[in-house]
Design goal:
- It is a single chain.
- By secondary structure, the chain is of the alpha/beta class.
- It has one domain (35-295): Aminopeptidase.
- Helix content is 41%, strand content 20%.
- Strands 1-2-4-3-5-8-6-7 form an eight-stranded mixed sheet, sandwiched between helices.
- α2 (35-47) packs antiparallel against α3, α2 packs across α4 and α2 (35-47) crosses α10.
- The chain binds zinc ion.
- Zinc ion binds at residues 1, 103, 115-116, 148, 173-174, 216.
Length: 297
């Protein structure tokens, strides 16, 4: 997710705890993994990587460990060679394709835990769920874009290289805590909006859905006329302030997300796995309802 230049930094300085947490984990007795611990471990795995190649290595390992073959799509951006990771998740080749995805890269400041190891770990969790229990009417692929922070370059390269056009692209960016889903949709009447409202309510979450939303990879698809939506998860109270900042107006208070992302404070300490799992459950249920509806109509 990119930020307007006007945002002031208010660092909170928690990074040192990251390594202490990792050392402690080695001595702890092995406990059964849960959706929350798996998501947290994926965020920590990406956040502890030294660079974007290390973040991708974590994702490749995880995808391979679940038997998903990874296709590495390279592209040039100036002197840089970017790498998108794309994997077939489940479904029949004859079915229309649902593409879920998130950007794997981070800016140089901080560890990119919330922006966007959080969204990458959500896309991975959903891919595992759709692999374990395929959708009725859609094939699923998962993609991890590179160089989003340089201007949505990876997603744009996917389209420029005429890769497969999905029936729908579902993006995840900044999905780290809070009591609310934030959904970007170009069309309020899209059936996934209604199913997302129902699913959020079922999880006791709020939801804001609409066109006003920060830039992320869904925009590259929409610009090409390809169908796309995007999800974030933060505190409901943060959303009006974020929109105020993007609208060039001073927010009543600087929302947490803007104090954390693109700063030295974007570390694992700020994410909340127990909250996020409710968000993942809600999005899974919303997508399955949309899929079932499409499959029967
Ligand atoms: Zn981002």
């Amino acid at each position: 997710m990119s930020l307007p230049s006007s945002v002031r930094r208010a660092p909170l300085a928690f990074a040192a705890l990251l390594f202490a947490g990792a050392a402690l984990a080695q001595d702890a007795p092995q406990t059964a993994s849960t959706p929350a611990t798996t998501w947290q471990a994926d965020v920590a795995g990406m956040a502890s990587a030294e660079d974007n190649a290390g973040r991708r290595a974590h994702l490749r390992e995880r995808l391979a460990s679940t038997g998903m073959a990874v296709d590495v799509q390279t592209f040039a951006y100036g002197e840089i060679t970017g790498e998108n990771l794309i994997a077939e998740v489940s479904g029949d080749p004859a079915q229309p394709m649902l593409l879920i995805g998130a950007h794997s890269d981070r800016v140089s400041a901080g560890r990119g835990a919330t922006d966007n190891a959080s969204g990458s770990a959500v896309a991975l969790a959903l891919a595992e769920r759709f692999r374990a229990q395929p959708l009725q009417g859609h094939r699923v692929q998962v993609a991890f874009w590179d160089l989003e922070e340089e201007g949505l370059r990876g997603a744009a390269a996917y389209i420029a290289q005429q890769r497969e056009k999905p029936a729908l692209y579902v993006n995840f960016d900044v999905f780290g805590w809070g009591d609310s889903l934030w959904m970007m949709t170009p069309d309020d009447a899209h059936p996934l909006v209604a199913s997302s409202r129902d699913a959020a309510q079922a999880q006791g979450l709020q939801i804001t859905a609409g066109t006003r939303y920060p830039p992320s990879d869904h925009l590259a698809f929409l610009k090409a006329g390809w169908p796309a939506v995007s999800y974030s998860m933060i505190g409901a109270a943060e959303i009006p302030d974020i929109l105020a900042v993007f609208g060039g107006k001073p927010p009543t208070s600087m929302p947490k997300v803007m104090q954390v992302i693109h700063s030295a404070d974007d570390t694992v300490e700020h994410v909340d796995a127990d909250a996020v799992v409710k968000g993942i459950d809600a999005v899974e249920a919303a997508i399955r309802a949309w899929d079932a509806d499409a499959a029967t109509h």
